[in-house]
Amino acid sequence: MTSLAIVRTVSDLRRAVAEYRAAGRTIGMVPTMGALHEGHVSLVKGALDRGDVPVASIFVNPTQFGPNEDFSAYPRGEADDFAKLEAAHCRIVFAPSVEEMYPGPQLTTVTVGGSITEGLCGPFRPGHFQGVATVVCKLLMMATPDRGYFGEKDYQQLQVLKRMARDLNLPVEIVGMPTIREPDGLAMSSRNRYLSAEERQRALAMYRALVTAANAVRDGRTACATAEAEATQSLLKAGFDKVEYFSVVDANTLAPLAKVTGPARIAAAARLGRTRLIDNIAV
Amino acid sequence: MTSLAIVRTVSDLRRAVAEYRAAGRTIGMVPTMGALHEGHVSLVKGALDRGDVPVASIFVNPTQFGPNEDFSAYPRGEADDFAKLEAAHCRIVFAPSVEEMYPGPQLTTVTVGGSITEGLCGPFRPGHFQGVATVVCKLLMMATPDRGYFGEKDYQQLQVLKRMARDLNLPVEIVGMPTIREPDGLAMSSRNRYLSAEERQRALAMYRALVTAANAVRDGRTACATAEAEATQSLLKAGFDKVEYFSVVDANTLAPLAKVTGPARIAAAARLGRTRLIDNIAV
């Protein structure tokens, strides 16, 4: 089997995975919502680099979108996605319908509490991380991979999923992969497609603000609150319409920091016209 | 390997299970809180009957007990439990410490909502089914069995776990096994050990009330509310101190029924002195 197998049902997915398992192969899962870009491709490559058979999924999960969010507008383009996966040497893609994923009411939810979900996107997207944790738990249980690959671009999501896997003793390793950026620094995101040419230029300010803030707070030089306020001002000046948060947090617990004394992350979310952009950077 | 292997850590459990897997065997898990009786033994037998290697666990899970419940008083007797499991031809018993099960704060919870948890024990034991679903999910992910065996004695718990496995697509079949009763009809329960000789006699009234009610409501002959009220009165007259509920419910959704027209279950919980007893019966 050298070409991409496209499966639509859980039973076909399990059958396709079992064939590779029977041949002694390990499985690396790459859950996505489609509208694939080089960030997603790097996750497939990450699986190949570790010797895993890459299994991608494409599912725009309704339960992780709020009522006023962009579920219906979210970019979809299956043929293009399949071509990118095939070119990346992905072996299986699971592209289920909503009915296949949720054949009846989903009464069971997986919730990660504590500081990991309390801050950053948590208050702005109520129910989002519960939707993510639940659907990723389902996908992992469907494909039973050895490893699941997720981008650091969605850093809070990555920490939620790592904690879920650890707390529920899932027999899966959650692997975080570096954010892939455009040459000018903008983090790749399916939502970048929403941006007008002018907004695309303004969007750059987010990465620049993150780099500036990371240099400012490193080794406790500047208080986090000072750097956060300056970054927020710089984003507004650059043409962002609203800054939801710009926060220096502990790299593991995501608890807000006053001073940087250990591993930290700076994460930001801001609105540019109708588009909500997020990004983050290690300190 | 013909004797019982006693394992205390997740890694030892996984290693012991992997040996049987490598030999082509399927695994049947029997999660328990110890204080084993013939009901538990029947679950081990159920696994053997289906050709599974029986793997039991003994863990008195603190997160499924309320603050005023009997966690510290719950009967514990490991040596006796191990002897019963060995005699029943169980192959592995996982008996972890609280620290092994919960090495850090358990921030992730599994919740089953809807009618399955709204009624019966739900309102009387807030947090109980979340504690049960979360710890059983953990245990199933630790041992990765083909099947998990649970008694119908805890009928609501069984429905919660079936729903959890279905909703989260766990690659595990949840098998319900018939309640094992004493010769006089009392459902076997570890909590029966709490009963004085006199209470033990009075306890019989619960099974009798269930049988009487099942005959009354069958085929819609008597309205459920009438049978429920009569049963409640009979339990109080027999010396029960408080009847928490005595309810005719849909066998699958556990939603209360006014008339029996399809598969139904009658479930009851009542207090006898300091002991809380539950039982249920098919209609």
Low-confidence stretches of chain A are: none
User: What about the largest sheet of chain A?
Assistant: 6 strands, parallel
Which class do the helix and strand fractions of chain A yield? alpha/beta
Q: H/E series of chain A, N to C?
A: EHEHEHEHEHHEHEHHEEE
What would your notes on this structure say?
Chains A, B: Pathway: Cofactor biosynthesis; (R)-pantothenate biosynthesis; (R)-pantothenate from (R)-pantoate and beta-alanine: step 1/1. Chains A, B: It is an enzyme of class 6 (ligase). 2 copies of one chain form a homodimer. The first copy, chain A, has 283 residues and is α/β, with parallel strands linked by helices. Chain A has 2 domains: 173 residues, HUPs (Rossmann fold, 3-Layer(aba) Sandwich); 93 residues, Pantoate-beta-alanine ligase, C-terminal domain (Pantoate--beta-alanine Ligase, Chain: A,domain 2, 2-Layer Sandwich). Chain A is built from 9 helices and 10 strands. A 6-stranded parallel β-sheet of chain A has the order 1-4-3-2-6-7, sandwiched between helices. In chain A, strands 8-9-10 form a 3-stranded antiparallel β-sheet, with helices on one face. The longest helix of chain A is centred in the last third of the chain and has 21 residues. The N and C termini of chain A lie far apart (43 Å). Chains A and B meet through strand 5, helix 6 and helix 7 of A and strand 5, helix 7 and helix 8 of B.
